[in-house]
Amino acid sequence: MKVLAVHPSALMYTKVFLRLEPLGLELVAGAARDAGHDVQIIDLQVETQKDYWTLLESFKPDVVCFSGNYLANVPEIIDLCRATRVRYPDIFQFIGGHSVSFIARDVLALSEGAVNCILKGEGDASIGLLLSALKDGKDLLSVPGVVTMDGEGPPPVFVDSLNDIRPARDLLRHRNKYFIGTLDPAASIEFARGCPWDCTFCSAWTFYGRSYRTASPMVIADELEEIKEPGIFIVDDVAFVHEEHGMAIANEIKKRGIKKEYYLETRADVLLRNKDVFKVWSEIGLSYIFIGMEAVDEEGLKQFRKRVSLDKNFEALEYARSLGLIVAINIIADPDWDRGRFEAVRQWCLEIPEIVNISVTTPYPGTEIWHREARRLTTRDYRLFDIQHAVLPTKLPLPEFYEELVKTQQVLNTKHMGWEALKDTAGIAGRLLMKGQTNFVKMLWKFNSVFNPKLQLADHMRKARYLMPIQPDVVESVDRKDLYVHGPGGRKTRALDDATEQFVDKTRMSEDA
Length: 513
Hints:
The chain is of the alpha/beta class and 513 residues long. Among the domains are: 2-152, Cobalamin-binding domain (Rossmann fold); 178-333, Aldolase class I (TIM Barrel), CATH 3.20.20.70. 41% of the residues lie in helices and 15% in strands. It has 22 helices and 17 strands. The strands form four sheets. A seven-stranded mixed beta sheet has the order 3-1-4-5-6-7-8, sandwiched between helices. Strand 7 and strand 8 form a beta hairpin. The longest helix has 19 residues, at 398-416. The chain is globular, with a radius of gyration of 22 Å. The model is unreliable at 301-306 (pLDDT under 50). This is B12-binding domain-containing radical SAM protein. Residues 181-395 form the Radical SAM core domain. It comes from Acetobacter orleanensis. Keywords: Iron, Iron-sulfur, Metal-binding, Methyltransferase, S-adenosyl-L-methionine, Transferase.
């Protein structure tokens, strides 16, 4: 069968700071191709809807699958599915990915028959089974993770091994368009999948059932050798949770003489626990590290259930600086912040050398915050669920909240973008331009055209074609097992030694599996 895999357009934040290779979609495409199907990919982050229609006409796929990893992309995906259904009524259309796995029935209802099914859970595990059932005329509800308006199939399953899956990188047509910071161009790679923690604002652990699986260091090194891009973004939710695994990958990279520059995300407590791993990685190409601090006071950390003290956070920043790493941190702006709170955060951001990103508390389906706050939503427009818009009541009038938010985000712009940034990165920028790479340089001046309080406020005024359903009454206590897409399998699903498992347990708050 012919399969067209589609990634939707860029979101607000990714229009400025990064544009990542659609690794998840490449993995699904690779699994479909391994199952014997003819596959193509189009990424609307770098191509247009006109390109989509041209490819549909020339390729003539039997199946179109969409990546539904981000809630804010849902309206665009549904629009494309409905328009495709009108022009090509015989094409089978389905959506998979992180966000739609939590809202499968809602998306199907909004599509009004344009979407044949949702594939919940790990798409690379079930895509072959779905295409086989479709080709052979079997009942789709026999496929793990499938949801239709008629019912649900068996629970989603995991891929047998992360060592056996390969992304179809060769199907991506514009590989020079992907970057993160000065890593331009940059590819993405997965060392481990899942997260064993349980932060209230996050749905990574509820998606994967608190599992944590790793790929073989040999397999990872093989993949790194095949990647042509000099920059590598490691997509793991928390990099190097398992010290031995991180060190083994580093040793394999050193043994083979692989030369890349790396960007990763981790937790402050993981960095401090596994200092030797991060030191070695700083010696083999690690340049950027992103730490999700989330809050600058103990009360905020408690709210997000991050058992990392402020002292530990600051100690982690100091250690990362000592390694010569460029550190970016995330702070979550709460809707209850007033002018004084914004000002205090601004001053704090100005006093530290790190890159600071400010996002907005956003209850996403699959998170505990969603179940607590869903009835308080001020909007049901999917497009605004992008961590850059306020979707809960704000203490300040909404126009003032956005003014303060963008003013605070401007700290990032002042310190790390525009002419100031160019002075610090002139050599890098020059080398990139000599190679025809313009992503990073263009990014330096995009902030004001994207982050604008008037534009953000105007987004609330746009008529929404697709609304989230009205949510039931707020639930005071949530049974976390009800949140999972992949059911929790307990200790056996986590590739951690006993000491690391105990460390994780001590640094999270709940006591479920």
